[in-house]
Every structure is written in structure tokens, then in C-alpha cells.
Amino acid sequence: MPSDREGGDLLASLLASLLADFDHWFTRGQVILEQCPDGVLSSGDRLELAERLADGKRSIAATRSLLQAERSSERNQHNRMVAEALKPQRSLNTTSDNISAATLSGQPAAHYAITPERRALLNTIRFAEGTWKDGKDQGYRILYGGGQFQDLSRHPERVVVKRYSSAAAGAYQFLPTTWQEVSNRLDLPSFAPEHQDQAALHLVEKRGALKEIDRNGLTKAAMNRLAPEWASFPTHAGQSAYGQPVKSHAELVAFYMTNLSQLRQSA
Question: What percent of the chain has pLDDT over 90?
């Protein structure tokens, strides 16, 4: 007979699987709606459907947040037990003295170092996505379409209807589903600028472009790998992977090199 903990883990696993399925289909609905020609649905019907999809996404996010809070509470309790167990060894084992306070408190540490090359890449993504804003932090508060939001405690999950319908937000225009997946994976507690940076670098790595950029800078190969993640980045052919407005290879390289030079001079 399974223990209470094993039963709880099994239930959490089943719920996570169900939520992932729901999330997939709501996301698929949003993608189809974004790509739907204007003549198929009236603006009113498009807006209503977009709101229903967004409501579904918000419900999923809320449920995940509750589950994550429960797991976080259990993790914090475990960390306190670990910290207590390590106390007698502090004077004998210098390694234990170096245990991250962030780890023991349940707070996430930075997953990716921010080198000048990576900062220049992040700034170039912002330039391509229209959130650069001369490097000001307001770029981290940009909604799809250019509007702004104020609360950085979480993704705003606000659907905006312009040429397309989208709930993309932040410096790197994260969709709610993308943010939920990455923030859960990296244990990011908010939508703060430093957490957005970490999430963006995770997506760059996931697309197989991070090592390329670390070694060779913003090459055409790196841009092609990032094109499926950010529609403003060009493929090898110089086009958007989604048929949307796109920056040229030359524009992005020029911005990247200029920004990288400035970062290195100020380092």
C-alpha cells in the first residue's frame, strides 16, 4: 500500500499531466486564433474567443501556482531540515559553509551567468522585439502592441487584439504558456527583469544557440536557430519563421556588435 507521500506524488503527477494537456490545447487555440485570417471571424467574436482562451490559461496558471506553492512549502521544510543537520559540521567542513543561502531558503539562484556577449544578445532580442527602449527597464513592462503593465510579480496574461491577438509580454515577449513552462523549470518566483533575462537565456539554450553565440557571436546560424522562438529573428533565408515582420541579418549584427563594444568598454 503506497504511503501518503507516494500517493500525493502520484496525484500531483496526474494533475500535472492533465494540466499540461489542457495547456497544450489552449495554446494551440491561441496560435490558430492568431493565424486566423481577419475575414473568418468578426472582431467581436475574435475578442470573445481570445478572452475565453485567456481565461482558460489563467485557470491553469492559478492551479499550477497552488500546486507549486504546496511543493515549495515541502521543499522549504526539507531545506530547513538539511540546514539543521549541517549545523554541527560547519566547523569541520568548509564546504557546508559555502552552501547558498538562496538554496536553503528556497529562493532560486541565477542559472545563467550574464557575460557581455550574453547581455548584448539579450539587448539584441529586445531591439528585434521592439522592447529595447534605449535599455531602460520599462522595456520589461511592454505588452504586445506597445502598451505597458506595472505588476512584475507575475506574467500579466493580458490578451491584446491588434493586427493579431496575443498575450505576449515582457522584454522578450513571452507568451503565458512559455513563461509558465520556463519559470517552473528554473523556479523563477516573479516576472522581474532579472528573471526575464534568465528565462530568455534558457530559451536561447533550448534552441541550441547559446554555445554558438558564446563562441562566435551572433552568427546567421544562431539567428536561424532563434527564429522559431522570436518571429522578429530571420531564418537563413532572411524571413520570419511565422510570416511576420522581421529584422535583417545586417540590422541585428550591427546592433549586437555596437552594443557588445559599449558593454566591454564599460566593464
Answer: 55
What Rg, from alpha-carbon coordinates, does the chain have? Answer: 21
Q: CA of 74: how far to CAs of 8, 68, 143, in Å?
A: 12, 10, 35
Question: In 3D, which of 21, 102, 104 has the Cα closest to residue 63?
Answer: 21
- If we measure between CA atoms, which residue out of 61, 64, 36, 65 comes closest to residue 50? 36
Q: What is the pLDDT of residues 221-237, one digit of tens each?
A: 999 999 999 999 999 99
C-alpha distances in Å from residue 22, one per residue of 15, 66, 156, 265: 11, 17, 20, 48
pTM over 0.85: no
Amino acid at 168: A
Nearest to 34 by CA among 197, 221, 144, 165: 165
Q: What is the mean pLDDT of residues 143-163?
A: 95
Minimal CA–CA distance to 223: which of 253, 254, 200?
Answer: 253
Kindly report the three-state secondary structure assignment for every residue of 130-156.
CCCHHHCHHHHHEECCCCECCCCCCCC
